[in-house]
Each structure stands twice: as C-alpha cells, then as structure tokens.
Amino acid sequence: MTHPRTHNKGPGEEPQVTVEMAVEHGLKPEEYEKILSLIGRVPTLTELGIFSAMWNEHCSYKSSKIHLKTLPTKGPQVICGPGENAGVVDIGDGLAVVFKMESHNHPSFIEPYQGAATGVGGILRDVFTMGARPIAALNALRFGAPDHPRTRHLVAGVVEGIGGYGNAFGVPTVGGEVNFHPRYNGNILVNAMAVGIAPADRIFYSAASGVGNPIVYLGSKTGRDGIHGASMASQEFDDATEEKRPTVQVGDPFSEKLLLEACLELMATDAVIAIQDMGAAGLTCSAVEMGAKGNLGVRLDLEHVPCRETGMTPYEMMLSESQERMLMVLRPGREQVAEAIFRKYGLDFAVVGHTTDDKRFRICMNGAEYADLPIKELGDEAPEYDRPWTAPAAPAPLGEVAPVRDLGEALLTLIGSPDLCSRRWVWEQYDHLVQGNTLVRPGGDAAVVRIEGTRKALGVTCDVTPRYVEADPRIGGAQAVAETFRNLCAVGAKPLAITDNLNFGNPERPEIMGQFVAAIRGIGEACSALDTPVVSGNVSLYNETQGRAILPTPAIGAVGLIADCDRIATVPFKAEGEAIVLIGATAGHLGQTAYLRDVLGREDGPPPPVDLAAERANGDFVRTLVEDGAVRTAHDLADGGLAVALAEMAMASGIGARIRTLPNKVPAHAALFGEDQARYLLCVPEGEAEGLLARARESGIPAQRIGSTGGDALTVEGHLSISVEALRTAHESWFPRFMDAS
Amino acid sequence: MKAVVVVFPGTNRERDVAAAIVRAGGKAEFVWHDETALPRADLIVLPGGFAHGDYLRCGAMAARSAVIPEVVRRAGAGVPVLGICNGFQVLTETGLLPGALLRNAGLKFICRDVHLRVETARSGFTQAYAQGQVLRVPVAHHDGNYFADADTIARLKDADRVAFRYCGADGTITAAANPNGSLENIAGILNERRNVLGMMPHPENLTDPAQGGTDGLGLFRSLVETVA
Amino acid sequence: MKARVHITLKTGVLDPQGKAIGKALGTLGFEGVGEVRQGKLIEIELDETDPARAEASVRDMCEKLLANTVIEKYDVELVG
Amino acid sequence: MKARVHITLKTGVLDPQGKAIGKALGTLGFEGVGEVRQGKLIEIELDETDPARAEASVRDMCEKLLANTVIEKYDVELVG
Ligand SMILES: Nc1ncnc2c1ncn2[C@@H]1O[C@H](COP(=O)(O)OP(=O)(O)O)[C@@H](O)[C@H]1O
Ligand SMILES: [Mg+2]
Predict the structure, then answer these.
(1) Does residue B60 sit at the A interface (CB-CB below 8 Å)?
(2) B64 touches chain C (CB under 8 A)
C-alpha cells in the first residue's frame, strides 16, 4: 500500500477518497458503501484510515464475533470476561489474576526478532493496563518444517526477541510450546501470553466517564511505525507483501518497564478514570474505545501528540503503531500529579484531548478538523459477518497399524524428534527466574509462580495439538482445553479460567470457517464441562500463504490456583523404589499420534476421543491427592503417550524405572505410544500404593500400578530397556544441533 | 543489618534481592538512582536488571547516575557494596572493580543453574561459606563474560580477590562448566579492600526451599553476621 | 585488504539505544546534542586483493548475514 | 554539524561477536575471510558549528560515556 503523505497544510490538502483507495485500505466495496451511508458523505482520508483500522478483521472481529459469543465466559470467579484488555479472575485474599494471550504472527514472519519482541510488549501492556503487575509470561510458537530454508532463522529471531523483551522488562518467561510443521512454512505463529496480579478492587477499565475530562498521552513518542500493521494482519501473504511492507515496529522494553512502573504508581493515586494501551492502530482504536464504551465523544488535538518524526500527518498519527504508548482519561485537576510521575521515569506526557458529550470522534490539528465521525457507530456498526461454512468431514478411520519391531528405537526417535525433544535451548534464553517466585520452572507440565505476600501460587500453561484440530476441529478444540486442564491438575492447581488465541486460515473460505466454528464449539463444550470460562482471547485469521492455510491452531492458555505453595507436584521421580501408578483408561488410540507421524510416517485417523466427564473426574482426583499432600510426583500423558511420559520423568530426575504391567488387552505399541486422554502418572512411596489404588477405586477412577522407580534405565519388561543417559542424550540433542547447523 | 538497594531505571531484580536480605534477617530500603545522598546503610546493593535498557554498554549509563559518587564514597569508607549481575557491570563501569563484562561467548542470554566454587571465605560476603565449597545458584545474563588484562588477573589471584569461579558439580574448574567464556571461569571478584563484591550469578534467587534451593542464602547471612 | 561496514537503522525506524544515549548525554551536561543513532561497525580482513571483487563480496555478506535489511541499511568502505 | 564515532575493542580484547560473525561467514561459503571485529558506530547531531569545538566535545563524550576505555578505543570524524 502506498501511504499518501500530505503535509500539514490542512484537511483540504488530503487527497480525495475513492472506492479504490478504500479497497487499498483493505475495505470491501460494500463496506465502503456502508461508510458513505453512515456518514452521508465521502470520508476524508484521515476518516478512511480510521474506518479501515476499526473495521478490519483484527479490530472488529467481524468474521468471528457471532461465534465467539457462544463461548462460556461467566463463573463466580470471573471479575471481568472478554472485552477489556485482559480477563480478570478472583483468587481470594483480595487479589485477582489478570491474563490474556495474543498473536503477533505476521510481524514475526517479516522481522522475527522485533515481531516477537513487540508481541510480548503488547501483551504485557494489556495486562498492566488493567492495573496488574505482570508475574509470568508464556509463548506458543509454531514454525515451518525444520528443513525449510527460513525456519532456523525464524526460530532464532523469535526466541531471541521474546527473551530480549521479557528479560529486560523483568517478567519471568516460564512456559510455552514449540511445534514444527510444513503448514507453517510461510506463516509462523507467535502467540504470547502474560499473567499479572492486581488488587481485586483496583482493576482499571477503558470506559471513559465525565465530560470535559483530559485525555492524556503517555509513554514513548509517535513515529511512522507499522502504519497499517493492523490491516496487514488481516490480509493473506503473497509475494507482493515484501514491497508493501510498512515500517517495522521496534520494541523498547526499557521504555515499557518504565511505563509499567509509572502506570502502577499513578494508579495507586486516584487520578486515573480510564486507561487503554495503544496497540494495533494505536491512537484510533484506543481513543474510540474509551469514548464509545463510556457513551462519550472524544476530541483529539493532534498538535500535542509527542512525535518522533517531523511532518507527521493526522492520517499517520492516527494509524501509527509505535510501541510503549498509553492513553488515559484523568480526573480533572490531577494532570500535575500524573505528569510528575511520568517525568520522573523520563516518559512523554501530554494532554492531547478531552471527552465530550456529543458522541462524536473529532480529530483536529492546529485548529483544522480532519475527522468528525459518530463514535459509537465506528465500533458498533462495524460489519459483522455470518460467513458461510461447511462442516468438516469426519476423519477416515485409522486402518491397521503394524507395530514397529523395536519399541525402544521408537521411543528414542520420539523423544528426539523436533516436536517432543527438550526445549531447553529455548527456555534457557528466557529469564524464567526473575522476581524470585518461580517454583516450577519450564520443562514440566504447568509452570508454577508464587504470589508474593501469600501462601498461594498460580499454575500457568498453554497448549493445543494442531494435528488433532486439523483431523477433527471439534475434538481438537476440546482437547486443547482438556490438556491445559490436565497440566494444571498435574501440578496441583485448580483450573480457574482460560484465554484463547484462535489462529486459522482465510475465513472467506467455507471449509476454514467450518474448522473455526467446530473448534469453538469444542472449546466451549470443554470449558463448560471443566468449569474454566474464557475470560480473554484473540483471533488471528488469514494465516495462509499462496492459498494454503496453516493447521488450525486454537492455542489455549490457562491459569490455575494453588492454595498452599508447599503442596505442588512435579515431573521428576523423587526417589528409588516408589510405586508408579497410571490414572485413567488406556484404549490404545493411535490415530493422529506422534508415534504414527514421527515413527511410522503417517498423519491419519481420528484424534483421540475426549471424554470430558473422565477429564474432570480424573483431574479432580489427581489434584485432590496433590492438595492433600499424598502425591508429590505427577505428570500428565500427552504427545507420545505413556512411554514418553515415563521417559520424561526419568530424564528429569536421573532415576530409572521398571514397568512390569502394561494396560492389558492393548497391543504393546498402542499401550506405550497411544494418546488416550485424561491420563496421568503418579508416584508414591511403596507403602502408600495400596491406599492410593483403594482411594481411586472408591472414587471410580481407573488406576493401575504399572511398576516402580529405580535403577539407571527405563525398562518396560519384555519390550524395551534404555539407559536414562541415552534417553537424555536423544532428548537434549536435537534442538541445539538443529540450531547450530547452518 | 540495613541494606540500601539502589534502583536504576530498568533495574528488575531489586525485589528479589530485598526478599533475600529479609530472609537472611536484614532489612532493605530502595533508593532511586537520582538521589545524591544515601541513608545510613550497612550494605549497598546494586541489583540485577537492565539499567537504561543495557543500551550502549551494560551498566554504562547507570555508572554515570547521580547516586554513584556517593556509592563510591561509601565504598571508600568501608561500607560493603554488593553488585549482582547488572550491578557487577555497573561496578566495573564505575571503576570500583577492574575488568569488564563482555557479551557471552555463546552470544545468547543464558538462564540456568550453575555451580560456583567459593574461592575465598575471607570476606564479609563469603565468610559463611567454606573455601572450596560448591554452591548451586542461577545465572541470567547476556553479558557475563569476564575480561581483564593479564596483569589484572594476576593481581586478582595474588591477592585472593577471586570470590567465585564457575565449576562442575564436583568443584572442578573446567571449560564445560564455564557458561559465558569468562577468563579463568571467574564469576565474582572483590576489590582490594575486600568490601566490594561483583558477581554475575544470582544468589538471591536461591534463598528459599520453595525456589528449589538455599545455597545463595549464605552470602546474605555472611553480610548480616558481619554487621551484627 | 580490509573492509569496514557501517550498519545503521533505516530512517524512521525507532532506535531505542540512540534515544537513551542522547538522553544520557543531556544528563551529563552536554548541550546542543540533537538526534543520536547507534549502529554497528564491522571490520573484516580479506584475502582478496582486487577492490571491486572485495567490495562485491562484502556487499554479498551484508545481504546474507551482516545486515537485517528489513530495518537496516549498510555501506561498505575498503581500507588499506 | 554531525559527528561519527567509531568504537572498537582494543587489540587483545576478545570479541565474541566478531568471532561468531567470522565463523558464520565461513559457513555461508565466503572464502578468504580473516579476522572480523565488531564495533559500534554512533552518529550524533550537534548544534555546534565550529569543527574544533565540536570534535573536542565529542571526544569528551567518548571519555565520559560512549567508550569504556578499559577495553575500547574510539575515533571521531566530523561529517557534514
Ligand atoms: N516457547 C517456550 N517457552 C518456554 N517454555 C517452553 C516453550 N515451549 C515449551 N516450553 C516448555 O517445555 C515443556 C514441554 O512442553 P510441551 O511438550 O508443550 O509440554 P506439555 O506436553 O506438558 O504441554 C513445558 O514446560 C513448556 O512450558
Ligand atoms: Mg504436560
């Protein structure tokens, strides 16, 4: 897109808007018609820019809204559900947890370091805008095939960018996911999640109130960064994208850290009425949202906006995506208090407008008016589509699967494969310890961070298995939620709520829309069954290159509460001679498993069925054991099934295990590598095994003693025996070797 | 013991170190970098983080802060000064400690537990440890590669001023145990008077069983005992 | 033959480092300091003795590795 | 008036970044690459119009902030 650069000579100098320009701005001709009838005239260029920002997919959720409405968002624990900068959930003791996940896919593909860094910056801002201090960050990453020429460069840049921003900002990055698949070759996914803590009665929202109140601009200066980044995020990539590239946004974690401290300091006074961070289409979206939510008008006088570059036009200022900026409505008379705090931190502070009673959005500069639009309609009248969709076809049944000859080889292959190998190379580049509250570090199930000043802690995780979603979006959507639930239960955390980041292809294609609709249905069903409402989220559509969509990837981030931070279970075996107990039923499901793909080279069959009642019962059972202090070692079963879970427990501890009984009536390879859901491994001292099994029987939970810990090898009698050392070597080698090769 | 923890714009481990000091039985108070006077203090801490974003050179801008002349004066008067990670970088930039901290040899930020050998128990920071004792504490840095010219290194060694070295779990000093390329595996050094310590690792992050270990607590206990 | 490569951010791209340096110079009492930008200087010893070929090779290095051409520009200078 | 400051590591000071670049160039197939050193380039806009005074002032900036003379050396060039 070419950016009309007018000089600040007044609105008359802006080029005349045409339907072609509207199309260049990513609007459909019929959407442009709607604008004409809404305002009864041809919009000015600045107005067109504002409409294009407000009405693009990214800001308006026009394709997804009607489906998102079906998700469960309520619960006694929910203080604030979707619709604000982040979701807010009560955790007792007068505290609330504030969290959200958001994508920065396209920018990260173009410039991996800065794209990922600013993605982290954006989500941190969402959390502290609500008045919360960020205490944990996570990231869900999806890259193309390892042998694709760009993959290594993208992995290196994205990981460095996430670390570069989070480390300097001072938030521990404690968890996430990394997957590789050719379907992400031209369109990687970078989903960042942040979690913060705030006083439950001091949450800040974006709705302005009061007429004539000052609107202030805070943070860094405005440049021509990412003009129309938000529109870009709603367009497919093609070869021409390279030329259309807008100025890349560069993150400044140092300014963000100062912005955090300044905002929290100011929020401790009574000066703030409303606050909104400037994210995509910065000034436009934040100002419109503050006004529209508060049923007020907004007038901005752009000559007061702190600019980094000379000659910026109103059009550019309204669409700039410069980072580390905030907008606030202040209580009148509190400007000096606020300014003193921001100056102390060396940040820009300027009164750039005020609230009005006429529900108009007015943009002026040096007295000339560049835009005058109805503020409610900018948001409320945004197009909303019920796009046609076709129900996804049921996956073909999985045919015969002949077992491999060497199950030990298969296990080594799996734990050394790109998707299941150790992610140490990634998380050692993230400061996962800053703040001193990381109780369970990355590498286990959920990470656990302590809440300062209490006995409590939070479990945090993010998960989705895109190959399941591709095969059956409804089951895959439910499975993603179930897996977060399981990861939380495994550490002993009571799942509270989730955030979702729905990454899909082009919604204008009915089969993609069908995936989207079905996945949301699955997510909703799981959230209802597991009592984990959706409190925030983000939708990223148009993730396609040359007409080929990514794997449907609804990443789920979840947060759970641990009442007593001394009662936590972790993955490593704790001692030799402990009993190993398998919780949950094993049917030996092999469709869409990692074993099928990475050992047998097949990606077929249905994904494992998700029995939400069993998830709930088994998870509650395991969590209760951890809460009671009966179990300190637990691990959920996911990719790679029982064998991989056992190997992970052995590798994490350096202690081996001997497995004597496998679930019966199931072929050995299916028992070892099947990915049946709702399962966990627990360890207890020998003398407590009978009691545990009895407790399971009473609760109607399937449980089976399968073996004992000990020795320096993982042995499954009759099938495999591998030294823990060999397991570790296989598990730890792939990532560093891949990244070091060029 | 009352510690003053200096906070620069971009510092991010001030609360971690304050918590560790409290666990060891001391008290901590924060002071913003633009103060020119400091309250009475038994210990001055320059904590970890990314002061001024680590822009230009780590610690460079912080070392030119208004508060620094007073820190230097107090150090000269014998007050213990502890610089951890970014704080160590600041101390080398102020000249209170010799040498410099370069980009890690592997070029990447590294966050993981390392083993440290206590090279000297002869200081107010390390007296609670035994010489040769092996500690497990985390590092979290991008620029921890200690460099100094050969004379300086020789002087440090001759005067028993190397406080900690990176080592294996059994205490042996090997290249494999060196996370960042530091000369002679140096992880922490003392000034001549032995009242200024700079170290890259973060003892403050392993001072509580819930954090997975308490090996770092000895450093803060040493300081509390020295003052008492 | 030795090449000197200057890598700088393209105009309009935010330079947080330069910004911070400028501010610090102000705090230290330097007056009349306008914009400060920080870039990289890379010096490369080359066996190549033909200037044209040396320059072409270094430009190729810039495109392939030294510069991130999404946000940076570079210039090559041959010395000695 | 604009100043260009080059800051480079003194000889004898290890340069991990330069070393890594040299290695990467080799892997990319560039031949005949000798030592590579990475330094900084800082460009400063100055109000000062007198070259001598400008240079003195920038040298002072280098001593006081821009360079760490324990490990780095610098040179100042006035342009435009
Ligand atoms: N991008 C990442 N950043 C930080 N930690 C990560 C990342 N990717 C994976 N991890 C961590 O590695 C471990 C294994 O990840 P995964 O296999 O997805 O776990 P699970 O199957 O239990 O959900 C987890 O602790 C996870 O948090
Ligand atoms: Mg798990």
Answers:
(1) no
(2) yes
pTM of the model: 0.94
Which 670-699 residues of chain A touch chain C by CB within 8 A? none
- Compute the distance between CA of residue B19 and CA of residue B206 in angstroms, rounded to an integer: 11
| Token duo for residue A62 | 């026009």
b/e sequence A1-40, b meaning 16+ C-beta within 10 Å? bebbebebeebeebeebeeebbebbbbeeebbebbeeeee
How far apart (Å, rounded) are the C-alpha atoms in residues A169 and A163? 10
The pair of three-digit structure tokens given for residue B125, joined into one six-digit string: 């920071």
Q: Which of B195, B190, B203, B17 is nearest to B119 (CA)?
A: B190
Percent of chain A that is helix, strand, coil (3-state, to 5): 35, 25, 40
Radius of gyration of chain D (CA): 16
Adjacency order of strands within the sheet including A348-356: A272-277, A325-330, A214-219, A348-356, A297-301, A360-365, A368-374
Is there a contact between A86 and A538 (Cβ–Cβ < 8 Å)?
no
Cα(A116) to centroid(ligand 2), Å: 24
Q: How many helices (DSSP H) and strands (DSSP E) are in chain B?
A: 5, 11
Evaluate whether A403 touches A643 at the Cβ level (below 8 Å): no
Q: What is the DSSP letter of A16?
A: P
Maximum Cα–Cα distance across chain B? 45
Q: How far apart are CA A582 and CA A352, in angstroms?
A: 62
The one-letter amino acid code at A649 reads M
* Inter-chain touch D17–B147, beta carbons under 8 Å: no
Query: Residue A604 and residue A425: Cα distance in Å, rounded?
Result: 30
Quote the minimal CA–CA distance from A127 to chain B in Å.
Answer: 18
Q: Are A230 and A53 in contact (CB under 8 A)?
A: yes
Dihedral of CA atoms A636, A638, A639, A640 in degrees, nearest 10, equals 70
Q: Which two tokens stand for residue A671?
A: 């028992």
Q: Could you confirm whether A58 is annotated as catalytic? A: yes
Could you tell me the two tokens for A410?
Answer: 């298969």
Listed in sequence order, the DSSP H helices in A595-665 are 612-627, 641-653
Ligand 1 pocket by Cβ (under 6 Å): A 139, 141, 173, 175-178, 423, 426-427, 430, 442-445, 447, 463, 487, 638-639
Please list the rounded mean pLDDT of every run of 10 residues in chain A (742 residues). 44 84 92 94 94 89 93 97 96 97 95 96 97 98 97 97 98 97 97 98 95 95 74 47 58 96 96 91 91 95 94 92 93 95 94 96 95 91 91 92 96 98 98 97 95 96 98 98 98 98 97 98 98 97 93 98 97 98 97 97 96 98 98 98 98 98 93 98 97 97 98 97 98 96 68
CB contact under 8 A, C24 and B61: yes
C37 touches D at CB < 8 Å: yes
